[in-house]
Amino acid sequence: MRRSFHSPGRRSQSGPRLLYAAASIPAPPMPLLKPRNLNHVLGRLLAAVIAPLLLGTLALLTWQTSQENRLAQTRLLALAHALVQASDAEFDRGIAQLQVLAASPMIDEGDWQQMHRFASEVTRKVPGSLIVLVGPDGQALLNTVVPWGQPLPNLWKLGEQHKEALWEGRSLPLSSGNLSRQAFDTGQPAYSDLYYGVQVNRPALSVSVPVQRDGRSRYALILSYPPAVLQEMIRSSVTVPEVRAGLVDRRGVVVAANGAAAARLGDKAVPITTRPGALHGLYRATSRDGTPLMGAYAVSRKNGFIVRVSQPHPGHLFPTRLTSLAWLALLLTAFVASVVLAGLLSRRLARPLRELGEDVRVGRPPPPERDTGIAEIDLLAQALRDGAQAERQRVQEQTLRTVAQNQEALLRQADRQKDEFLATLAHELRNPLAPIRTSAELIRRRAPADPVVERARSIIERQVLHLSRLVDDLLDVSRITLGRIHLRQEPVNLGEVAAAAVDAVGDAAAQAGLVLEQDIAAPPPFVNGDATRLTQCVVNLLNNAVKFTPRGGRLVVRVMRQGTQAVVEVQDSGVGVSADNLHRIFELFVQERHSGHGGNTGLGIGLALTRRLVELHGGTIRAMSAGLGHGSTFRIELPLAEAPQAAVPPAAPQARGTQEKSAGLQVLVVDDNRDAADTLADLLGMHGYGTAVAHDGQSAVRAVQERAPDAVLLDIGLPDIDGYEVCRRIRTQPGLKRQPVLIAVTGWGQQSDQDAAQAAGFDAHMTKPVAPQALMEVLGERVGR
């Protein structure tokens, strides 16, 4: 900073005026007096010249890079499509050969020896290939690599063994996976993945075609040939040295690859990200040798094999990058020279201001004794001393407020996103469960006498209910964590709770070969609580016991009083709990793992959910076990409540059959899931209802106007207008003879969804998958009255 030396007299005259001026100016910096650093001014001037050149260059190079990338991707994708067509052509040639053999009259005459000679002549055209004729029971009738007359195996039985073999360190299936059975059953050509051909001692691929007579499959022909044909096709098709190309089967195993690829025959292909259902696309990956790759893939419509074509990235951009570096070096040189010149000029013109700026930069207030002889600079120094302190305090307070606000906003956003994710997940899981459960009910009603069908239907229904319970448990854990679950407190008979839980789990226990007993004190104790949630707790404990108790075991549910507590115990003779896990068994996502035991499944949330529900009721839960192999006991203790006065039950209404109540009644089913709509309509028809189906909101509104149904089962997530809007339009639709009963049948099942349905005008809300009996009861109550 420049220093001026003055006489003492002059300083005594100017000092008071400067202090007065400083005292009369407010502490905050004055905008009119705020200085501009000359370095900053010169820098902006230079930036005005350099920046357009730099930005223009960057924009041009970015555009050029983008074009190079797009052109390379287009070339790769075109090559992938060409290779898919070429590989399909190779498979088609084999199928054509088999179809010629399938038309041979020697098959009709059963002349297998002559057929063997004929097929052997065909295989000589492709070295290493073989042809097999398979009967309708899977028995091989001829094999061109096995001399005629030698015994042949049953290929279907071999395929069911799922054996594998090691070939050059790679594990491959020992069979083509019952390829002939697939062709025989479907009547269409079938393709195998890469497998190890035992009779040729090397990897092979196979195609199979059915031999049909009078529209029925009588035999199946298999052509097996080495992947070398496809290997040669890829090698001859790819002429650019750095381009890597490969054919991958449906199991992700490399079938063929060119010399540039790091993978070889039988290797597991490097995983890539593809769009579900897409027949082609682009990807980025890293090869086995660590090379970054840019590639394209194409999927065969015929056999599902994937062609991958890639090249090192960004190797194709080398010329562009070399040009970019040259331009940037030139601009950087000009910029550095300009900065040096600006620095020299600023030091000559503004040294005092730079020293003052340095004081501020290092957080050191300008020393009061420094006298520059320039009133404006001295005044600025004093203002900076005063303002620095105030600014530091203000910035600190603002930072703390901003951090707190951001953290709060992030927490709210995370909670909202988690709720939305769980609700959407539940909806997407419940939607496909609905037609599955309805179909199971249709099977039960159509074929009740077939034990195999009934067993399969029972399995489907149990698994649907199990998955539905998992979804409900996930949502309940979220609600409890966020404090959004509400209990309907009333006197509850714990004996009835235990009986309801035993009834709900009885079928699962019987299916698992377990004895389920209940020991309920008389009279049973009462507690204040939510009967549904308490039943859920006992059901969760019983389901847990069923999972971890071997067949032939015993489960006991006990309900008793102990002092001022009501106690529910679930005891099992299962695998028990280790001492290390007893204190963690109620934590979220924690499970006791038992090697070789089938109970090692689930999400690990049932016991955690049970503990939190019990705690919401003011109770406690604990687990007891003598160790692994000694069973376990789960004990719930709740505060006792007084039993309510017995009420005279209302007279039961006279029951009427479902067919009688539904006779002549019309129901409109609206769902964009066609399977869900059709199966539900079939079920209603079997109960005597007349049905119609619509798959979007507009069609539903028109159908109500034209058909005047008695009830409408309406999905919410429709493709054009949602179910709430459909409901509102029906309620306000003029000219209707009567308003139908509107029932929301949807995968959205939270309390907010039920409230929204009620506000829109629905008469009832049911969450998918709906129990058929519950649906019939709701229809009977609301439509049949």
Molecular structure report:
With 785 residues, the chain is an alpha+beta fold. It has three domains: 35-349, Beta-Lactamase (2-Layer Sandwich), CATH 3.30.450; 486-639, Heat Shock Protein 90, CATH 3.30.565.10; 659-782, Rossmann fold (3-Layer(aba) Sandwich). The chain contains 20 helices and 25 strands. The longest helix is centred in the middle third of the chain and has 72 residues, at 375-446. The termini are far apart. It catalyses: ATP + protein L-histidine = ADP + protein N-phospho-L-histidine. GO terms for molecular function: phosphorelay sensor kinase activity. Keywords: Kinase, Membrane, Phosphoprotein, Transferase, Transmembrane, Transmembrane helix, Two-component regulatory system.
How many H/I helical runs? 20
Helicity level, as a percent range? 40-55%
Looking at CATH, the homologous superfamily of the largest domain is PAS domain
First CA to last CA: what distance? 98 Å
Fold blueprint:
Layout: H1 8-24, H2 38-102, H3 105-109, H4 112-123, E1 130-134, E2 140-143, H5 155-160, E3 164-167, E4 170-173, H6 179-186, E5 190-191, E6 195-197, E7 202-213, E8 216-225, H7 228-237, E9 244-248, E10 254-257, E11 280-286, E12 292-299, E13 306-312, H8 318-349, H9 351-361, H10 375-446, H11 451-481, E14 490-493, H12 494-511, E15 515-520, E16 526-529, H13 531-547, E17 554-562, E18 565-572, H14 606-616, E19 620-624, E20 632-639, H15 658-662, E21 666-670, H16 674-686, E22 690-694, H17 697-707, E23 711-714, H18 723-731, E24 741-746, H19 751-760, E25 764-767, H20 772-782
Helix pairs in contact: 2-7, 2-8, 9-10, 10-11, 10-16, 11-14, 12-13, 13-14, 17-18
